[in-house]
Every structure is written in structure tokens, then in C-alpha cells.
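Here we describe the complex-level prediction in full. Unlike the single-chain runs in Section 2.1, the two entities below were treated as one system.
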Amino acid sequence: MTKMIDISAMPAELSEKNTLTARRLGIDTHEHAVIYMRADCHICRAEGFNNHARIKVSGPSNKAIIATLNLVVTDLLSPGQIGLSETAWLRLQLNEGDPVRLIHPAPLLSLSAVRAKIFGEPLDQNNLDAIVGDIAAGRFSDIHLSAFLTASAAHEQSFEEIRDLTLSMVNVGQRLDWGRAPIVDKHCVGGLPGNRTTPIVVAICVAAGLTMPKTSSRAITSPAGTADTMETLAPVELDVSAMRRVVETVGGCIVWGGAVALSPVDDTLIRIERALDIDSDGQLVASVLSKKIAAGATHLVIDMPVGPTAKVRTEEAAARLEGLFARVGSNLGLNLKIMRTDGSQPVGRGIGPALEAWDVLAVLNNEGHNVPDLTVQATLLAGELLEMGQAAPAGRGAELATELLVNGRAWRAFEAICEAQGGFREPPTAPHYQVIQSPRDGVVGRIDNRRLAKAAKLAGAPASKAAGIVLHAKLGSQMVKGQPLYSLHSQSLGELSYAHDYLASQPEIIEIEEEQCPR
Amino acid sequence: MTKMIDISAMPAELSEKNTLTARRLGIDTHEHAVIYMRADCHICRAEGFNNHARIKVSGPSNKAIIATLNLVVTDLLSPGQIGLSETAWLRLQLNEGDPVRLIHPAPLLSLSAVRAKIFGEPLDQNNLDAIVGDIAAGRFSDIHLSAFLTASAAHEQSFEEIRDLTLSMVNVGQRLDWGRAPIVDKHCVGGLPGNRTTPIVVAICVAAGLTMPKTSSRAITSPAGTADTMETLAPVELDVSAMRRVVETVGGCIVWGGAVALSPVDDTLIRIERALDIDSDGQLVASVLSKKIAAGATHLVIDMPVGPTAKVRTEEAAARLEGLFARVGSNLGLNLKIMRTDGSQPVGRGIGPALEAWDVLAVLNNEGHNVPDLTVQATLLAGELLEMGQAAPAGRGAELATELLVNGRAWRAFEAICEAQGGFREPPTAPHYQVIQSPRDGVVGRIDNRRLAKAAKLAGAPASKAAGIVLHAKLGSQMVKGQPLYSLHSQSLGELSYAHDYLASQPEIIEIEEEQCPR
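The structure predicted for the assembly as a whole is:
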């Protein structure tokens, strides 16, 4: 009835039995690799694969991934077939009918380090290398990723942990070497809608002869990331060789970091942070610095808006984050400067990928008077980099930056970058909009960045490129009842309605204060 | 180009446009509800649904669920069709071709409470009601569930939080009222492989005339839960009315708690805890007590094995957990007793659903001499309940329990329970096994419960019912080199090989110490 078997003779035999024929089902499961197998498949029985099991899958290319099993109880698949989601199919570089092999994955050893962190133990470089390596290899499910990020937020990460995490994140991807210095870079810690200085700063620095190979993120919890905005102006999904060609040709670029595999786990972590709407200090520092170090940056300016509804709300929080950035950065050999900026209201007029792109174009085309705050912010940041990179004398950076805007050289540099990345294009405009009017006479007294950003997201940003908000007033603006305060833009009626419902449920996001002492 | 629209006129219009035709794809996505839509579907565009969006879905039955969107880029679906996973299909009670309506779900407001907990703020009853309610409604993704459990483990839950969580978990499901007292119950905090006393205790208590409507869990991180074991002896997936009928007829039952919707979020939380391999004190107390209170228990005995490789490792940890159980239990009106038991080695011989069932049958059939430790443990626990329930005088419970085993009344009560639940059946045996022999002469000095449990899981338990481990020696057993120490049992060669590889990579799980002073 039961029989005794010789284990040592098994592997070869198994390797042939565990093969199925690949079929592209065309199901896009986002970042998750999913495989579909018939519930009556002999391999499920033989290997004890249960529904939702994590399975190691390999094809003829010899690449292997960990995928989640979904069982199929109808005739969607023929016997002997295995269905693969788009992500699984593309990662394994399969062709229709290829043989696919399935085995149990090795146990997820780094999970014990995650558990230790949950219970408050710090993680060392080995732990973090193991965790980040397993994330990069796709071995962490959403459950594991969320636990790692939650534990990291729950127990404040030490300086050593953040530095080690940064290094782990750099080491698991490519690291660019430009064979020269300085390589300048900038980053904004975000939280301020519309603060889209990057394309302007890159254009100015490149116009001044500096090398600025900028990789940017998509939005984490905001209505637009720089990559989202830049994508409305030119292609941003360049691979490393294309990025290198652009930078060698024109001196700079503005591309999506995710496509060049610099700090590749960052985007995975960002997806989870977005779902949880958290972004801890340690994770933020590691995310930013790993990207910069991997991109080969030597000199970095960090724009840190501070304000009651910005990401960094108080001067104390700013000082803590600044200290972390400075300490980790200098420890890793990065020349780093932090500029605290005014985070009390959005910068520019637009909030959302395309709407912010229109503001960028205004500044570069000498229509900066329409968005004076964005113009000032961009020239200050660019000026700092011009000085750090010795393209301008100390104290004269901002002046040179302004000059490069006015004389059109920054615009020409930007055009050259867009052309080199695949061609300049005009940002889209939204088919639907709704104007929110001032409910009374008075002065704009407060603007809630967070709820404004939320409304922009409900309107469809950043996924709907043209969606978002346009501000028609800023802090201190004199308003007359019925005058446009801001407008919602969206690509669909459903989204417009959704954003509108949210606004209707909220107190004023832009507060109009009646003047106390009318003249 | 852009047009202004009247928002107030939209909803009715949208409700007709947002309808697709249901198609059962037969894809089993486990607990997750998934919907499949063509990437070119007009609703995706109109509503701004992105890949992996969470969408509120409803059918003609008026039930609504939150499902995850997967886009389909091939002709798997015709235009106008929507595919639904098995979970989504069954929850919505659809028929082929039914109209299905899609809208944006309301924002997940309870997520802000989860974030507060991540950053160390305690949760109150309102927060917990909101979180548990959203979990019960399927609004939490794996990412959210994992963050909630991780945060709860990272910041020790206060007594108040655990009590409130327990109540939230009770209130979100059914609560049974048996119209009489006492209603006795037992629970083991687990961590000790093979400790399958429950079926024996229920049989004894029912034989003594007590009412014991026992609901049990499936395994969390162990090779078998009581429900897994009981399922090899009789059906356990009874709904509440079937459970009630069984208890009214024979005085007790042993059913799977998940099927009767008592504390329904518990199984969802357990799935995540299993993936993370964590089980915090607070979560454990809430999980156990919510099930017992919902089941209508008035008197509860908790078996708490303590040992270096049990779930509770030290007397300090036991005291802490005991204090939590006692305080939360009495606060919620439960008469509760905790018995610390020896957790230094497995109880009985078998580890795994069916292998443990065979041990249970041995005790009930007066072959308890083969599993003396299981017999003693079960009669002590049953004795305590007999005394609490006033079926035995103080100090005489264990004696009566033994008598009911010996005179066959416990066995007859067990047979009656199995019959009432749908019929007794014999547990399966595994087609493959491998014996691990003693590497030397000596005495069994230590047994590592955790690694033994892990090996049993790698062999396929609990999903493969017949899989697991049989111990041929216990602590203190005299061994001769080559004598059987334990054996691996599995339903597939793949699993046997997998468990074997693990054992080969480990130091001895059962340590044989050479005798220092041979006589």
C-alpha cells in the first residue's frame, strides 16, 4: 500500500514530468507574475501545488521567475497547457508552445529578517541585501512587501539601516559610470502639488555645459511625478544604452528611472507605499539616494518644501530628514545640499502630468511671468547646481540660471533633450472640466495641498495624463464672489463626478477669508 | 475643445453605460475577487480604471463586492463581456450573461487608522470596527491586510485594543445563542505538533452530558489544525443551521469555524499571518476569544504548551499571554481557565491531518497505551471542563474523563457526532514514505518542534491530508544505530523530495545523545 522510494534517483525523472506547454492568455496582471493551470493537472497533484501557491517557473531562455498559481476549473486551457500572464510571459521571454518547467521555490529565508524587524530588531547589511535581493528577484508577494515597509515605518530606521538599505538598493541594479565629474542631479522630496522644476533645472544646467543624467520617478502618492509630466512632452521609457546615448549627445536627459533598472526595487516599494499611502523618512532617503548613486551623481541638490500641508510639515521634521539625507549622503561619498523651500501652497498653476507640463513650457518659453513662483524656484535650484558644479561663481548661480532662460539657451537645450529622447510632443488637454468659484468676496487665506492633491487624483491624475487641477488664485489673491478659484480637469465623466463628490463632502480646500479691515 | 458639463445630471446616465455581460472564466483566484476586462473596454476609459484597480462590482442579486481588475489584451473576452474569477462569480451569485455594473469604490477611510497604528498610535473601538468591517466586506487588499497585522505586531497591542478588536471581530459575524448554560469549549494555543486533543475532549464532554459546540480553525503556521484533522474523519464544512442541528441532536460538534461565519475575518487574517509566519499575542487572543464568544461559549479551557521550541517558549511569555487571555476573557464575561502543559516535544505519534486522526482514533478505541501522552493530556483538559461545567465534583474530573474513555461512551459520542456531521470516514494513508534512522546508539535528548513541523509542512501537510511525520521515538527513548527515529509521509514524490532536501540541510532535528555513564 505505501511504498518506499529512493530519493536520490528522483530529480532527473521529475524534471521531465514537470513540463507544460506555454500559452499566452493575454491577461495583464500588473507587476505580479501569474500562471494558470488546470485544477486536474498532474503536476499540481505530483508537486502538491495549491491554489495561490508561489511557484518557480522557467522556460527555454533559462530565466526563472516566481509566479502565483491560479487554478482553472473550466476548459480555458487544454490538458498539458499552462497559461501565463503578460508579466510572466515577457519576463520569461517565451514563445507560444515553449516548454515551461515548474518547481517549488527555495524557502524565502529573508522573511526571518523581516520578522525580526517587525519585532523591533535592527537589520544589518546582510539582512538588507537578502531582503532587497529577494524583492528584486520577485520572490516577495504583496503580503511580504507590505510587511517589510510597514515594519520599517513602525520602528524608525537607524542611520546605519538607512545607509545599508541604500547600498543594498544600489547594488541590486545597474550603476552608471560616466567617466567624468561633476555629474549633477536634483531631487524634490515632494508633497507640494505642481512643483515641477526638474525639466527646467535640467535644461538650464545642460545649457550651462554641465552633465545632468536625470532619472525620475512616477508619482508615489501625488497626482504627478516628474516622469509622468515629462512623458507628456517626450518619451521617457529609455533603457540604459538609449539613456547613455542621449546624455553623450546632448549633455542630459529626463527619463523614467524604472526603465533603466537603477535601484530597480524602488518602484516595487513605491507601488506598495502608494497603496498604503505611507512614505517613511528612512525609506524616502534610501529611495532618493539609491537612485542618485546608481545614476552616477556626484553633486546633488535636494528641494525640501516645508509647510503645514506639504510632505514635510514642520521645521523639526525638516531638520530630522535633512540630517538623515546629509549623513547618509556624505557617508556614501555624495556632495549634497538641501534647500528648504516654501511649502505653504502649490507651485505654478497646474496639478497633474500634462497641466504641470504646460507650466514648464511657459517658463522655458519666457512666459514665466504667468508662473512666477515656479520660475523663481527653478532658477534658485539650478543656480545652486551651477555653483556646485563650478559653472558659475559662488553667489552668482541664480543670476546665470535666469540669463539662460531669458536668452533661450535653456529652451534649446530642452528641445534637444526631447528630440534625443524620441521627439518633442505637445501635452494633451482634458475633454471635461468644471470650475469651482469663490463662494464670497475676500482673500485666499489657506490652501490645503493634501486635499487638493487628492481631488486631482480623484479626477484621474496621474494615470489620466490630462487630468488634474488648475489654480486660478494663489495665497493672498483678492477674490470676488463667483470668480474662478480653481478648476477640475478630467478625461472621463466618471472621474469628474468622483472628484466632484469628494469636493462636495469637504470643507473649503482653498479658504477665502473675509477681510477684517476693508479700506 | 473642452466642454463644461453638469455633474448633477450624471449618475443615471452612467449607471446604464457602466454595464457589461458576465462570463464565468473558471479561474480560481483563491480568496481574491478578480475581474477581467478588455484593455479597449469603454468603461475603463470612461471611468479611468487602470490595471490592478480595485473596483466595486454588482450583479442582479444586488450583492456588491470589491474586485481587482486585470486587463485582457487578447480576444479571450468579446467586446462588452467581463470575465469573473470563481470567487467573484460565487460571491455575486451570477448566471452566465447577467449584466454586471462597475463603479469606483468609496475611499478606504479605515486606512488612516491603520496608518496611525503603524506610527504607534493605539486604535479605539471605532477604528477597529471600521477596519474589521472593511476587512469583512473584502475592501482590504493583501497589502492593507499585511500592513494592519504587521503594525499590530510591531506595536504591542494594549489590553483595551485587544478587547476592542475581539468585540469588533465578534460583531462583524454571527453570534450563536444556545438558550442554555453552561456551553463548554476548549482551545490550544498551538505550536506543539500532534497535540490533537480536541476531538477526544469533545467526545468525553458530550458523553458526560455537557454541550460543546466546537468550531475549530485550519492550520495557521502548523502542519495541521483541528479542522484539518477532523476533516479526515467526517465533514466539517457545516453552515450554522447544520451545526445547530448536530448540536441539538447529539450535544456537540467539531466543525470548521470558517464555514459558520463566526468571527469571519479571522480566517482572512490567518491567511496573511501564515504567509508572514507571525502570530502576535494580541492577534492570538482576539482570534481565539472572538471565535469562542461568537460560538456562545460560557466556560473555556485553554491548553498552553510551554517549551523551548513550542509557540510559547518561556514561563514569562506564558504568564504574559495568560494574563491577556484572563483579562480580556473575564472582561467579556467568559469563565476561563488556562492549563500550562509540557511543550518540550510533540504529543502523540502523528504530525499532519490524517496521521493525527489515527492517534485520536487510538485513544478513543482504548488503544491509548500507544499514545499515552495524548491520552493523559486529553483527560486532564476534559476533566477540567467536566468540573467547570459541574458534570464532575471538584478534583474528580480527570477520573471521570478516563472512565468515559474506558467504558466506550466517549467513542460512541464521537461516532454519533461524526454521523450527525455527515458520516464517519477512515483517514487516508500516504502512498510514499521514507524512514529516518537513528545515526548512533544513545538516548533521545532533544526534539525541535519547529523544524519538525516545517519538515511535515514541506512533505505536504496540511493541504495534503495524509502527509506529515510519524515519530517512532520520544524524549528519553533508548535508540540503537539504524533504528527508525521518525518517518516522512507524503502524497507526492515532489513533496517527499522537498522535505528530504530540507532535512539534509539541517542539523539533527531529533538529537541522539550518547550516554555518558553506560551501565
